[in-house]
Amino acid sequence: MSNSFGRIFKITTFGESHGKAIGVIIDGCPSGVNLDEAFIQSELDRRKPGQSKITTQRKELDTFEIQSGVFEGKSTGTPISIVIHNKDQKSKDYDHIKSAYRPSHADYTYQEKYGIRDYRGGGRSSARETAARVAAGAIAKLVLNKLNISCQAYVSAVGNIELKANYNALDLSKTESNIVRCPDEALAETMIAEIDAVRKQGDTIGGIVDCVIQGVPVGLGEPVFGKLHAELGAAMLGINAVKGFEYGSGFDGTKMKGSEHNDLFFTEAGEVKTKTNYSGGIQGGISNGEDIYFRVGFKPVATIMKSQESIDQKGDSTDVTGRGRHDPCVVPRAVPIVEAMAALVIVDFYLLNKMYLT
Amino acid sequence: MSNSFGRIFKITTFGESHGKAIGVIIDGCPSGVNLDEAFIQSELDRRKPGQSKITTQRKELDTFEIQSGVFEGKSTGTPISIVIHNKDQKSKDYDHIKSAYRPSHADYTYQEKYGIRDYRGGGRSSARETAARVAAGAIAKLVLNKLNISCQAYVSAVGNIELKANYNALDLSKTESNIVRCPDEALAETMIAEIDAVRKQGDTIGGIVDCVIQGVPVGLGEPVFGKLHAELGAAMLGINAVKGFEYGSGFDGTKMKGSEHNDLFFTEAGEVKTKTNYSGGIQGGISNGEDIYFRVGFKPVATIMKSQESIDQKGDSTDVTGRGRHDPCVVPRAVPIVEAMAALVIVDFYLLNKMYLT
Amino acid sequence: MSNSFGRIFKITTFGESHGKAIGVIIDGCPSGVNLDEAFIQSELDRRKPGQSKITTQRKELDTFEIQSGVFEGKSTGTPISIVIHNKDQKSKDYDHIKSAYRPSHADYTYQEKYGIRDYRGGGRSSARETAARVAAGAIAKLVLNKLNISCQAYVSAVGNIELKANYNALDLSKTESNIVRCPDEALAETMIAEIDAVRKQGDTIGGIVDCVIQGVPVGLGEPVFGKLHAELGAAMLGINAVKGFEYGSGFDGTKMKGSEHNDLFFTEAGEVKTKTNYSGGIQGGISNGEDIYFRVGFKPVATIMKSQESIDQKGDSTDVTGRGRHDPCVVPRAVPIVEAMAALVIVDFYLLNKMYLT
Amino acid sequence: MSNSFGRIFKITTFGESHGKAIGVIIDGCPSGVNLDEAFIQSELDRRKPGQSKITTQRKELDTFEIQSGVFEGKSTGTPISIVIHNKDQKSKDYDHIKSAYRPSHADYTYQEKYGIRDYRGGGRSSARETAARVAAGAIAKLVLNKLNISCQAYVSAVGNIELKANYNALDLSKTESNIVRCPDEALAETMIAEIDAVRKQGDTIGGIVDCVIQGVPVGLGEPVFGKLHAELGAAMLGINAVKGFEYGSGFDGTKMKGSEHNDLFFTEAGEVKTKTNYSGGIQGGISNGEDIYFRVGFKPVATIMKSQESIDQKGDSTDVTGRGRHDPCVVPRAVPIVEAMAALVIVDFYLLNKMYLT
User: Fold this and answer.
1) Among residues D184, D186, D211, D206, which one has the least CA distance to residue D195?
2) For D291-311, how does the pLDDT look when each residue is reduced to its tens digit (9 = 90+)?
3) Does the beta-carbon distance from B308 to A264 stay under 8 Å?
4) Given A21, A80, A114, which is nearest D68 (Cβ)?
């Protein structure tokens, strides 16, 4: 259950970390979209393992194949199936957890829920599954491009190293200029050094990804249980390792007074705008035309290269030490995942909103 | 669209602030549940307006009627319809916003999305709708009671006044002993004074509600897009005025190292436990048997008794000053709403998880 | 579960035959629709009990109240809640089946499935629930009227008395001119006499309702599992007492050869048409612009005024004789129900199809 | 949209007749099921093209690969992805319909709905897609086998050649003993001769498939819109070329009186049974423990080897003559498809019904 996401532009993903393949079916993509394969690959490349010294060294090219739903390069309105074959599994790296539970991983909960688990690389609970989302998100972006809607994410914190500036004080075109994906290049260097230091300790560190969505028309989002920010929140909280989500003023907004927090309306060149944007572009769950922005908090990766106390399937004490190839910090690779999920939400609500057209 | 919530235990709400009635249909409640009407009313009473000096003075008794799905006091497995008739509408209080948009309300977005809006009391966008959720949540709690699962929320911050202690250092039985619903009675007094002061200024203030769910069995939650915390997040973000959600270590967890953050497993009297609980009772999106806890951030109420610049439907400048009866701070009344939504999520996943039984 | 129908224009019904009320929430009705209450009532009147000598004599006016989703007479895009209070329950008529199972009713299956049942009038399994569908269907028809789409049903058979003519050889404006709702007035008299004769025997009889939908644009229906005729079929098979559904050439088409059955395309005044219409207006699950027509078979009502062998809840033998007020034949009152369900399907697919607009 | 089927045991199919592959994701299969690949293949073999002289001569082995959701031969509870690569496409056979519409095919409706179509072999509208359903249905059958539930279909009519006997007067073990899949071997010969004669004429013929489901426990099916027979009907009407569905007494039941049609309850060895079974094993939409049986009517295949008048995309007159390899009658190959869809419905409702367990 629940391997699907979206109402109209609906994706269903499959696959395990060390299985034959991972992939996605997109059901509900409008017809006539140019399925630009180079673009889809470039998005997958931003997420793929082994892309830099601060990511896992697993080597997966993450090349993909579109198996259906395309004719002469364009979407036909039928399901688009995308498959990515796994190539560089080293399942032996996981023999030691065949019957032991890694702390703060999903080993124990999967075993208890299903009575069986594919322990190799975490099986279905591995973040490798997110490659399928990035592929689907790339197609969502292709639809949004035609509508002049953009989704841009970037790393705003690694541990205690925080980017204080708001997105509109940054040059987001620089996000991809460094391996940590922070648009402040000086701070990026500090972040990279921190991740590297943590990695050398055999440890890991958390971080924060910010995202801004621009060009969204007024009216996307559904009351009461389909509020735009609630869906964005669910999308982000569904990404591996995410512990928190806030949009607009977020938790800081809880300390403000209404007279400070309210976004005053005015008109400029016939267009309705707000003087401030604590609402984060969403009012009453519906987009108001201003920029939508939000923050996503990621915990430190659970796999560390240190010995930790744990138990095995029988309940006996054991020690677990991380092996294999792992990320010391997920946020650099999380940037395209956050964008992909954001794009999927926006496309879906855009299509859903068409029912109100007359 | 999207006025429904849940997969198996599914609710659909209806109604506007100043319409004839609000209500809910619960489809999927198991049969044989004692529908304790006194308990349902007591939950509605915790949310109802006019309950204390720090809430809106609108007088609604929020008495309800069960119209279906019950036979000789027990649920029959068919839809349970609950209706609450509106009594104390003062729609004249809203004449001034017939064509003007209140800042940071949903007036503008509803008008743009639907081309029509019930301006009286905010119509469907009013938090009055949450009474329907509390009624449904009360029935969810009745199911959970039989399973020894509890959902307890409380106010942990009003503006800058913050409760620093964790839930397990508090006596949650004291939450209902004061009108702000903070289990630390001394701090509660400070919070009440703050809300009162803000109210006298004609202003409003934000705050935070914490919630803890205890007794949840291992195994609730669905990978990949139905993670238990993602659904809790969507449920909370769907409550009016919510700006942020975090569970377990939350945003603080982003600053931690893996070696600090990992929850080590051990066995006690044959039961699997973790030494710490930064995971917040959920690993890989699935409950692990530990306490589930999370925080929900609420912005300050948008309606203030001060004049604010805005525009009208034609786009012309105008001033809007709040009239009518409003809450200076939503968190005291949000406590039962947070509990209700939490209970709805847990019941739903409990029922969904039965498909794995052999 | 499963008291909802539709994807975009989605209804959820509630209520039992002898409970306080029955009703429906419509979620997803476009905004700006004039909710013509006189029309809605006229549709309910076509279905209501006691309307003629050949229907049950239970007296229900089936007056309704719209509780939400309307402002100044128009739909607002928020959920429309409609309630119909039960008035003329005579629950004593059902005391004899408190613990006995009526043959070919749902008494036994409900008791086994839920462990409890509201035996009064059949509870939720009563066709009284269809009043809620007719109310919702009336609003669907109001939307379709603006699109020049009509749904017209009529009785084409009562027992062995069959109307041989196809719909396009009939004057459908005469359907409402007689109490059995057959547009062939001479045959209508024979049908009425047959129902009356059966009623006097304390027996019941089955029949067939035909329906034609005209004005549907090309393109409604979704491959693969949302074929237009599959949804129509599910809608019709969900009506109480229905045993069969066929569209276009139906079961007769199974005896034909391809060369006879194929509908040849031609163009007339720039419009694509087919010479015959064995396809019933649907090809590959998608409307082709021709008339959509189908047939729905209803079994004889299970409640008869004769003694029948049966068992009670303990499994002991008992006799059951019908009491109370019942229809000797459902088809006259089924006509507006068939139309309502057809209208709900068409509106839903019309809205769904908008996602393909560019 | 709508390429998914089922609520809990949910399948999503993809693929076109002449694309790279077709396949299915099964989301919601319980864990621990032995995924017997030989059995899955044997089911695919029953449906595959080229299996006998009375089917299409397209040569597809329909070998499949399970890409996920399996570990050491057992289902893990995560999505099971199955892919079948297309091998024997002869797309040139379809060049003549690149811009022409074949009568009674989906060419015209797809073109109008989507503005683009994969004309090769009918693209997504081809019955080749049903191989994916048969693969998923095979896994559903593996689950049902453990519950002693069987789904058996057979050909009961080819054109005017009809099998008059009811299923319980037949030896269904003989269904697979002949290429037309009719358990009456003498009649089977007549049917085969008829199909062969029609094929030689370049024509096609319709037929009927009957199905019986045995061993279903009491209680499957959901009121009001999820009635078991309504879901079976939707499942069958979603199969290519189906024009009608009836269950139990079906359309014949419309001619009966209540006193004839009612199924009287009695108890045998503590088990509740009915003397007759006109209800077809379903009462009030819920299974009553008796055999479930239904009939599915298929139209003649639209592709014939004769010249037919039609139009092209511009609306100009043209002639279309079938080329390529086609079935003269679909019912022999429809038998496993009907069984697969029946199995999918029953498994889904079986899992859904678990929510009522205490």
Assistant:
1) D206
2) 999 999 999 999 999 999 999
3) yes
4) A21
